[in-house]
Specification:
alpha/beta; 34% helix
Length: 151
């Protein structure tokens, strides 16, 4: 299957829904720019900066970069986080699919009231941690006879 055919298949599956990317870095959504339905990018740092989509970025809003090794958006109680949640809720007013790079409590709190019309194409944030623990992932894969790269 060619990349054009693959892209066409993706767009057909999305249908009339808008596509929303929720991630740590907005620039990670660059590969999605070829999908016509991409409408919103919501991120913490490194905005995508594309005129093709609506974008909400914590770094742009506050004019400061957070230390991603220490910063947790779910623990941040500033008014700017309330504003980001409101922006997410607004994006979720129409039928959509949200692709989270990494799910968070903030995303879940905006998604649940709109779950009847927004498909969450990721795992629930409370399940995320185990998939970030490389030894657990590799052990689970090895138990299923899936080849892994040894340390």
């Amino acid at each position: 299957m060619s990349s054009e055919q693959y892209m066409q298949m993706i767009q057909e599956k999305i249908g009339r829904r808008q596509l929303i990317f929720y991630g740590t870095r907005g620039c990670d959504a660059e590969t999605l720019l070829g999908i016509d339905q991409l409408s919103h990018v919501i991120s913490q740092v490194a905005p995508l900066q594309s005129a093709a989509v609506s974008e909400v970025c914590l770094e742009t809003m506050t004019q400061e970069r957070v230390d991603l090794n220490a910063y947790k958006i779910d623990k941040d109680k500033r008014d700017v986080i309330v504003e980001i949640r409101n922006q997410i809720l607004a994006a979720f007013r129409s039928p959509a699919i949200v692709i989270p790079y990494r799910s968070t409590e903030l995303l879940a709190s905006a998604w649940f009231p709109r779950a009847h019309q927004v498909l969450h194409a990721g795992i629930f944030h409370e399940m995320q941690t185990c998939f970030e623990h490389k030894p657990w992932v590799e052990t689970s894969l090895a138990e299923r006879n899936i080849r892994i790269i040894p340390w």
